[in-house]
Amino acid sequence: MIDHSKRQPVLEIIATDTADARAAELGGADRIELVAAMTEGGLTPSYGVIEQVVAHVSIPVYVMIRPHSRSFCYTPDDIRVMTQDVRVARALGAAGVVIGTLTPEGEVDRSQLQPYLSEAKGLGVTFHRAMDASSDLLAALNELGRIRNVSERKVVERVLTSGGKPTAPEGLPELKQLQELGQTLNIAVMAGSGVTIEGIAEIVSATGITEIHMGSGVRKAGSFQHPVDAELVAQAKAQLICAVRSLELHEVARAAGRRRLSR
């Protein structure tokens, strides 16, 4: 399990094909979220796309496992499909998967998660923005922190969330709460949705989150009609590194101030 207490700037970029993934890597992205059908919020890409992207980039590729966009509640047939998709993603060399299931009441559905979490052995796991459709964000994160594998190790590495709001900039107070809880659970909180290059610094400083997820923000005109732009990715990465360094300096200064007061 990754030690999420360390301040590491991590930029994840949404890619829909090999060209997107190559541009993301060229610009300095740390990880790819590979998806299809962005007009539906992102669905599972084809096996051919997974194979090609994994073969053409060296950074980790996390594959979206989502069979439809109707809801985050799934039938037994859906779960069988998703379990097979996880199995294939692992066989094709993906570094991780991006998943999420909820009950009709908006709680994390552990019984549905378990089959494909078991199949994801050896892979990283991100719980996607199903978080933002949950009835209680903090309860959902706590529940994810309780999921263990047979070796009693945590399974979910991180959650992708906008703090329950339409965009991350609108959910800064909620993201800060999630980040604080995530640190106690050793689960990273990654901010996504509506993130712009110019807005990265505020997200980091206001929440302490150092993992940023971007899609339209690194494409011309902010549109998925355009491919990922390597130069925009480079600008986003530079902003993130700068913001995380500023956060670290602020925390060091604050700790020094507390020590002086305690003397």
UniProtKB/TrEMBL annotation:
Main location as per UniProt: cytoplasm
Record key words, sorted: Cytoplasm
Gene3D superfamilies registered for this protein in UniProt: Copper homeostasis (CutC) domain
Single GO molecular function: copper ion binding
Keyword Protein biosynthesis in record: no
Entry's localization field: Cytoplasm
InterPro entries hit by this protein: CutC-like, CutC-like_dom_sf
Cytoplasm recorded as keyword: yes
A single GO cellular-component term on record: cytoplasm
Family of this protein: Belongs to the CutC family.
Record PANTHER family: COPPER HOMEOSTASIS PROTEIN CUTC (PTHR12598), COPPER HOMEOSTASIS PROTEIN CUTC HOMOLOG (PTHR12598:SF0)
Name the UniProt record assigns to this protein: PF03932 family protein CutC
Gene source species: Paenibacillus barcinonensis
Biological classification of the source: Bacteria, Bacillati, Bacillota, Bacilli, Bacillales
